[in-house]
Fold this sequence. Notes:
alpha/beta, 6 helices, about 40% helix
Amino acid sequence: FPNVNQLSIKDKSKNRNKPIIAILQRIVPLKQLTTLFIEYADLSVEDLIKLLYCAPNVHTLHLFALPSSFTDLELIKENEISKCVSNMNKIENLSIRTWITFYEIPFILHFLPKLKYLKTQILTHETQKIIRLLLAETHNRLRNL
């Protein structure tokens, strides 16, 4: 599919033999993707990072859920591929179908520095904390311009 720019990936199995990137690279040129829909039962942080590394032009990302180890920000900050993806990715729009917590927001902000739009579900009792964090992050980014 040489002209594709949107890709939807859905997999509910938990026993995968091959990495998703190896399979996708044979089907579609990942570099030309601009929109990515991922609905995975157990997508790992590593697979998401590798996928975004191979698809640097994605500006819209739709996830069913964040990977379970998404909150380990220090580990992700130390990973070289993660640093590269964080610096080069063009993701401005992120949609997550499931609930996210306050503790996942710093990862999202670090990993997607160009993010302009976030659509997800949050717990009511975390709303104030999340808004404060987002406003503080916006203030810090504006101050560093």
